[in-house]
Design goal:
The chain is an alpha+beta fold. It has helices spanning about 10-25, 60-75, 95-110, 120-125, 150-160, 205-210, 290-295, 300, 350-365, 390-400; strands at about 5-10, 30, 50, 85, 85-90, 115, 135-140, 145, 165, 170-180, 180-185, 190-195, 195-200, 220-230, 240-245, 250-255, 255-260, 315-325, 330-335, 340-345. It has ten helices and 20 strands. A hairpin with a 2-residue loop joins strand 10 and strand 11 (about 180-185).
Length: about 400
């Protein structure tokens, strides 16, 4: 079998990349997934698609994803079930108030709709919240969330309609190369010759790239969030998402329940060899963390939520985010290996950026000028690293642990 490009990994980023390649007229694209489409860490993403980011180069990439969603829904006739509820950013201290003013300035610069709202208005939107400590609040009205599994599925359906071959339950074992040039991949079902490979294998991407001694500057870091039991009186459909930096917390509605995340002070990181390849199987790290984090780090969140300690928790979800030390995405070509591209290193915002990342990589492969500056996301921006070393993984974990807001 001989094709033009192999994309490894059918999460949102891999599926979007395959679609963009086909959309540009690239013939013979194969999307390979070890399990099934969207079944890995994609299926565990909280998927808050916040548009405004303190890391401004990411904004056009996220805006592209929103445009892609409209396009693939029209093209396939399928809905990604996006929930446009907006995000309310809360400032309850002088520091967070200044940070929020900066975030609003960035939103205005990029024409992202927002408006300042009063504490009373916050209470109207979020009746369970104690707003006494609110100094400033801004409502980013166009923010949305969705089920990342559904987004990956619709991206892949759009790609398939344009001629992309999708191989599920197929594992790439080896990258094949000669004279610093990609010539194919070896899977558990045979070899495929190709000119280009896109490594979008998420937490396991470095296991492939390091076969060529080409590190991707990211590491698998745990993400964790909780879902309460249903209480439609408190958590109505359409309730806005919340970002509360002073509590290191975020929330979004979840079918009559509340999904909430608390930032960990020391997020666990993992060697990819220690991760289970089967989707949706393990609690990552110490299972007692499911309650210890709430007990030890939920007090600030509880100060905004008087009924918090009375809540019944339905589930605790752990997944993997591929974090980078600087919090930027990682994608693009490996300059020393012709035809080899990375699309991994989501920095906790992979779903939101999936369409934009896919377009950027497709433009690079097609020889087009990227629609926005790719330099902040380059695979070699940290120089020589060992992505498997504990020290490097800790740097990546620290990036997540120190992240306080939705930007």
């Amino acid at each position: 079998m001989k094709v033009h490009t192999v994309v490894i990994g059918a999460g949102t980023i891999g599926a979007a990349t395959a679609w963009h390649l086909a959309k540009k007229g690239v013939k013979d694209v194969v999307l390979i997934e070890r399990n099934t489409i969207g079944s890995g860490n994609t299926s565990k993403a909280a998927s808050l698609m916040t548009l405004v980011r303190t890391k401004e180069p990411m904004i056009p990439i996220i805006q592209e994803t929103y445009q892609n969603i409209e396009e693939i829904q029209e093209f396939t006739g399928d809905s990604v079930e996006i929930q446009k509820v907006g995000t309310i950013h809360i400032a309850a201290s002088e520091e967070s108030e200044k940070n929020l003013e900066n975030l609003v300035a960035i939103a205005d610069k990029h024409s992202i709709r927002n408006r300042e709202i009063s504490a009373n208005e916050v209470k109207e939107y979020i009746p369970w919240m104690d707003t006494d400590k609110v100094k400033k609040a801004s409502y980013m009205e166009d923010d949305s969330f969705l089920d990342a599994y559904v987004l990956a599925k619709v991206f892949s359906d759009a790609a398939k309609k344009l001629g992309v071959e999708i191989m599920q339950n197929t594992e790439v074992m080896n990258l094949l190369h000669e004279n610093n040039e990609i010539i194919g991949v070896r899977t558990n079902k045979g070899e495929i010759e190709c000119e280009n490979v896109v490594d979008a294998a998420g937490a396991w991407a470095n296991q492939l790239s390091m076969q060529l001694n080409k590190p991707i500057p990211m590491a698998p870091v745990r993400s964790i969030y909780w879902i309460t039991k249903k209480n439609e009186n408190l958590f109505q459909k359409g309730q806005p998402m919340l970002v509360i930096p002073d509590a290191m917390a975020y929330t979004r509605p979840e079918s009559g329940s509340l999904l909430f995340g608390l930032r960990e002070e020391d997020s666990p990181h993992f060697h990819p060899e220690d991760l289970n390849k089967e989707p949706n199987v393990d609690f990552l790290g110490n299972p007692e963390d499911a309650w210890n984090i709430i007990i030890n780090h939920g007090k600030d969140f509880a100060s905004f939520f008087p009924s918090f300690e009375e809540l019944e928790i339905e589930n605790c979800i752990t997944g993997i985010s591929t974090y980078t030390p600087d919090g930027y995405y990682t994608f693009g070509p490996f300059k020393e290996v012709k035809g080899f591209y990375a699309a991994a290193g989501c920095a906790g915002a992979g779903v939101a950026g999936s369409g934009g990342i896919g377009r950027m990589v497709a433009e690079m492969i097609s020889g087009e000028e990227p629609f926005t500056d790719p330099q902040p996301f380059s695979v070699d921006r940290f120089g020589e690293i060992d992505p498997m070393s504990p020290g490097w993984r800790q740097r990546c974990a620290d990036s997540r642990s120190k992240k306080k807001d939705g930007g």
